[in-house]
Amino acid sequence: MTEALRNWVYGIVGAAVVSAVTLTITPESKAKRVAAVVCGFVMLTALIKPIKSFDYGSFSRSLARLREDAGEFSAPALRANENLTRAIIEEGCAAYISDKGKLLGISGLEVSVTAKLAPDGQWYPESAALRAEAGEDKRAAIAYEIETGLGVPPEKLSWEDRGGG
Fold first, then answer.
1. What is the pLDDT of residue 165?
2. pLDDT in tens, 109-125
3. Which residues contact residue 126 at a Cβ distance below 8 angstroms, ignoring those fewer than 6 apart?
4. Which end of the chain has a smaller Cβ tally under 10 Å, C or N?
5. For residue 93, what are the contacts with CB-CB under 8 A and spacing of at least 6?
């Protein structure tokens, strides 16, 4: 592709040099006007020639190869972005649950949230592991808050008891 571009530029430069020399050495007369018209056609031909002989198949293959290269180049960044988004969702949801636990009077609540990628490309909280000193009434209350606030059903919650509460 760059070879064709270089040849095109050389052709234009060559036509321009020949035209300039021709117009410079031609005396002022009707012949100079004819030479100017001929030089104009030579320049126009030099400009248009690559369009006539353009290899569209090669150009299409080059574009496809560039797209593949761009995809390979951007894949690690996209994976890192997905991991970062997942971590943000998980940490945000864990903070939400911890705040709700404090409001409900659950002491020493430790939360770990697991997020899952939905078919639409969005991360959502799938499950949560909770460790706390909480009785059944407080567990039910926070399970309700988690289900209504985050959409995680109670069966996706795992509990580890740290003592009575």
1. 46
2. 999 999 999 999 889 99
3. 114, 115, 116, 152, 156
4. N
5. 113, 115, 125, 128, 150
Q: Do residues 165 and 135 lie in contact, with contact meaning Cβ atoms separated by under 8 Å?
A: yes
24-60 pLDDT per residue, tens: 888 888 888 898 999 898 898 888 887 777 777 887 8
Q: Strand, helix or coil at 132?
A: strand
Q: What is the H or E stretch that residue 153 is in?
A: none
Which one of 3.90.770.10, 3.30.300.30, 3.40.50.920, 3.60.21.10 gives the CATH number of domain 86-161? 3.30.300.30
Residue 140 confidence (pLDDT) above 70: yes
Q: What number is the average pLDDT over the span 16-30?
A: 89
Domain ranges (residues) in the chain: 2-54, 86-161
Total Cβ atoms within 10 A of residue 94: 19
pLDDT at 136: 87
Q: How many angstroms separate the CA atoms of 12 and 2, rounded? A: 15
DSSP-based three-state secondary structure for 35 = helix
